[in-house]
């Protein structure tokens, strides 16, 4: 079956490549004829027969995707809607090498591209794939969970974008571009989606032109569904409690366009996003025989209440045809409270509850750009960028364990497993309180391009960034002396271990467990706090060199050398890292062939990382550290082919090799399996040559659509297949099997299938669609971690227990939408 899929993909690519080869060899006369007739041909075709020509802003200019000399993919709102895309996670298979993994206790996601990403979701954990909305940088990983609705388009640029775009985009950048208000006419749209698990999505938009110079556009969306993780027998939850995976999100956006004068216009946007779902939870990475995968023994119900409020303003002033000024400013506030069952009941009787008691992240940005005329032979763009973020958060962990005799008694009685330790049993806690953690970043950038001949264009650019990160008065409480935990069955305890046991006279409640909103003192904690104070300043220059060659009006070749950097990280205890740096070499081919019936893009890249940043939980603390380096190389292909007026074959494919260079590190998982501890008894080993996380050797998505003319309209079935070879999804840089847990950190090769059937009447007044996502209900591991993270923890005296986040299960539904 896999061989058949590979052959089908290879034939598709070969057919497309052969077609462009024939065209290349047909001579200059044919090229000139194609160039002179392309515009007329497009204009003569019905809209349904033309390829979408999306304008992107990745170069700080408005350019068509096929005329943009970098690896960038873009989709308009109709394409997103037809593919059931509502957020970045559901976009992943449509973009080469993009992976979005879930996370439980942060309300956010980790985004990877070409095998590079960041697992640091803390207060100043900068993502490696930068996320923007309307050109405004979203610094927290939670921003990437925002709903996609009423967009002009979404553009995804791969590779370092650090010369023109904001911050830390060493792996790539994602930009959601809202649909702009129009002064031309009154219009609107509405849609409703229903599906299994009580899925209900409603959305609408209205555009109101007040005059030839002022227009208002308001859009809103509401999306809710039941959870996907069933409560196992013994779960300590109240009736009606929302299951993990339940969603309850909404968004509303108001955009005002004001043309003050013919030379000056402004766009002002207020954007609000609210997520009150249940969050995600680990499932068993090594499920037992007969055990339902999407189920868990829950003692902490998932709660999530996070919101993002953003005000944005854009002013554009064009005093002459040859000069353009743009100001882009924003203010944003992100707030969150949530609780999460981080043990997921994988060791009955052991409870680990993670909570964000409060979090508020305020940021603002200012950017000033100046640019020359888009059509001049010599073009330039320059700008200033200022970004400030102030974060405060309290994050708690409560852990406790009761005896196995008590667990078995509860199970035998058919009662819930009530983890509340009594005398002689274990409990401890941690609290991370950061009251004033800040980032101040400023940058200056510039880029120039010269059209040397009609075919050749040269570009050079540079940026200098200066960052200042600091933590004032941050504290880490370890109650009483985490992680000196008590191994189950131990009879001779150390003094620290004795302090973690509930002692006579304290009753059933252990004072070391903090509880939601609980006060912490040295007396109640049994310890004094650790200091998180840190002050880190860093400056870095990055640059870009690029050559473009217009082989024909419909064929663009380009090559570039780009540098980028990822700002140093601040970790627990005030620990800091060095910055991550990289140099990227890239050559690309973009083509619109057969009168734009075939689009074929190829991109080859080599990226060399130095001091690559890594994040991993070690002894219950998120550790940030620098690897010596990494090498990422690969080839990406994207195609859209309409062999007939009623057939469309689209897709992408990636060949990737992403490995760490030689450096010494500690294999946390192997150390635990051997009863050792990193930093003390476990040896350092070389991980040079190990494959990076989320870097399968080959992955592809192939989608086919066919239009049937029926009942005065158009019926379109669609099938989309995604295939990946084996990849590593576990934490750390080690590919070897964990002793006793063969394959636990791998996701074996897999295939998923999406199906839909869409009907649109000839007048296009409405659209009706039925769909099935993940039709074969394939479970795919996205992230794997050990639940019992410390040597000697009560839940794993002689074993390790692994939890995983998985993709969404099979879902089905129907959608009706209309435009007026």
From TrEMBL:
Q: Which residues form the signal peptide?
A: 1-31
Recorded hits in SUPFAM superfamilies, A to Z, give: Porins
Name recorded for this polypeptide = TonB-dependent receptor
Matches recorded under PROSITE patterns: TONB_DEPENDENT_REC_3 (PS52016)
| Ranges for domain TonB-dependent receptor plug | 66-173
Pfam families listed in its UniProt record: Plug, TonB_dep_Rec_b-barrel
Instruction: Give membrane topology per the record.
Output: Multi-pass membrane protein
Q: Does the keyword Cell division apply?
A: no
Which family does the similarity line name? Belongs to the TonB-dependent receptor family.
| Domain TonB-dependent receptor-like beta-barrel span(s) in chain numbering | 276-774
Q: Where in the cell is it found?
A: Cell outer membrane
Q: For this UniProt record, give its keywords in alphabetical order, as a comma-separated list.
A: Cell outer membrane, Ion transport, Iron, Iron transport, Membrane, Receptor, Signal, TonB box, Transmembrane, Transmembrane beta strand, Transport
């Amino acid at each position: 079956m896999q061989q058949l899929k590979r052959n089908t993909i290879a034939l598709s690519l070969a057919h497309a490549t052969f077609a462009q080869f024939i065209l290349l060899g047909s001579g200059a006369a044919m090229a000139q004829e194609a160039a002179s007739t392309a515009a007329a041909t497009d204009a003569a075709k019905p809209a349904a027969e033309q390829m979408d020509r999306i304008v992107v802003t990745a170069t700080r200019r408005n350019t068509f995707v096929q005329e943009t000399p970098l690896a960038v993919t873009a989709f308009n709102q109709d394409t997103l809607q037809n593919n059931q895309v509502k957020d970045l996670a559901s976009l992943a298979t449509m973009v080469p090498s993009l992976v979005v993994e879930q996370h439980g206790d942060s309300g956010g996601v980790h985004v990877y591209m070409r095998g590079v990403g960041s697992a640091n979701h803390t207060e100043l954990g900068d993502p490696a794939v930068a996320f923007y909305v309307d050109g405004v940088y979203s610094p927290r990983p939670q921003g990437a969970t925002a709903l996609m609705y009423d967009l002009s388009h979404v553009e995804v640029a791969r590779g370092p974008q650090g010369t023109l775009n904001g911050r830390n985009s060493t792996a790539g950048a994602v930009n959601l571009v809202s649909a702009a208000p129009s002064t031309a006419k009154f219009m609107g749209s509405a849609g409703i989606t229903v599906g299994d698990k009580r899925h209900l999505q409603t959305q609408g938009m209205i555009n109101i032109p007040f005059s030839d110079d002022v227009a208002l556009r308001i859009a809103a969306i509401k999306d809710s569904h039941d959870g996907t993780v069933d409560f196992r027998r013994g779960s300590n939850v109240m009736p009606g409690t929302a299951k993990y995976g339940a969603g309850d999100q909404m968004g509303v956006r108001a955009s005002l366009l004001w043309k003050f004068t013919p030379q000056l216009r402004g766009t002002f946007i207020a954007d609000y996003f609210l997520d009150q779902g249940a969050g995600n939870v680990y499932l068993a990475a090594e499920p037992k025989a007969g055990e339902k995968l999407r189920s868990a023994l829950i003692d902490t119900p998932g709660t999530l209440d996070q919101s993002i409020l953003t005000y944005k303003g854009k002013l554009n002033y064009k005093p002459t045809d040859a000069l353009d000024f743009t100001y882009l400013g924003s203010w944003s506030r992100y707030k969150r409270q949530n609780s999460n069952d981080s043990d997921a009941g994988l060791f009955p009787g052991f409870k680990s509850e993670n909570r964000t008691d409060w979090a508020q992240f305020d940021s603002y940005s200012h950017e000033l750009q100046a640019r020359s005329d888009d059509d001049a032979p010599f073009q330039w763009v320059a700008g200033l960028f200022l970004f400030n973020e102030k974060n405060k958060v309290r994050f708690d962990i409560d852990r406790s364990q009761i005896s196995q005799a008590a667990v078995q008694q509860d199970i035998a009685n058919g009662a819930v497993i009530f983890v509340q330790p009594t005398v002689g049993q274990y409990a401890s806690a941690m609290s991370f309180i950061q009251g004033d953690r800040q980032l101040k970043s400023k940058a200056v950038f510039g880029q120039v391009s010269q059209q040397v001949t009609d075919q050749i264009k040269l570009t050079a650019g540079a940026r200098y960034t200066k960052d200042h990160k600091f933590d004032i008065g941050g504290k880490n409480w370890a109650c009483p002396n985490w992680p000196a935990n008590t191994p189950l069955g131990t009879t001779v305890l150390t003094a620290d271990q004795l302090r973690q046991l509930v002692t006579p006279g304290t009753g059933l409640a252990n004072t070391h467990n903090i509880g939601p909103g609980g006060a912490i003192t040295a007396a109640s904690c049994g310890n004094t706090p650790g200091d998180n104070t840190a002050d880190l300043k860093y400056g870095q220059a990055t640059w870009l060199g690029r050559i473009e060659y217009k082989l024909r009006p419909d064929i663009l070749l380009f090559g570039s050398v780009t540098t980028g950097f990822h700002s140093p990280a601040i970790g627990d205890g005030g620990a800091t890292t060095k910055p991550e740096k990289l140099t990227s070499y890239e050559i690309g081919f973009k083509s619109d062939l057969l009168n734009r019936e075939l689009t074929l893009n190829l991109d080859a890249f080599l990226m060399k990382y130095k001091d690559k940043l890594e994040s991993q939980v070690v002894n219950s603390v998120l550790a940030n550290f620098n690897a010596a380096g990494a090498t990422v190389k690969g080839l990406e292909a994207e195609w859209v082919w309409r062999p007939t007026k009623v057939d469309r074959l689209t897709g992408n494919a990636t060949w990737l090799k992403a490995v760490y260079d030689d450096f010494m590190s500690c294999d946390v998982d192997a150390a635990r399996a051997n009863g050792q501890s990193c930093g003390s008894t476990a040896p350092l080993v070389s991980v040079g040559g190990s494959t990076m996380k989320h870097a399968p050797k080959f992955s592809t998505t192939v989608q086919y659509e066919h239009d049937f003319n029926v009942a005065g309209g158009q019926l379109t079935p669609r099938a989309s297949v995604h295939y990946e070879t084996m990849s590593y999804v576990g934490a750390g840089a080690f590919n070897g099997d964990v002793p006793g847990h063969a394959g636990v950190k791998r996701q074996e090769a897999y295939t998923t299938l999406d199906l839909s059937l869409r009907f649109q009447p000839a007048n296009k007044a409405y659209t009706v669609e039925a769909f099935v996502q993940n039709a074969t209900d394939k479970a795919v591991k996205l992230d794997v971690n050990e639940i019992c993270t410390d040597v000697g923890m009560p839940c794993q005296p002689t074993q390790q227990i692994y939890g995983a986040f998985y993709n969404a299960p099979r879902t089905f539904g129907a959608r009706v939408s209309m435009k007026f």
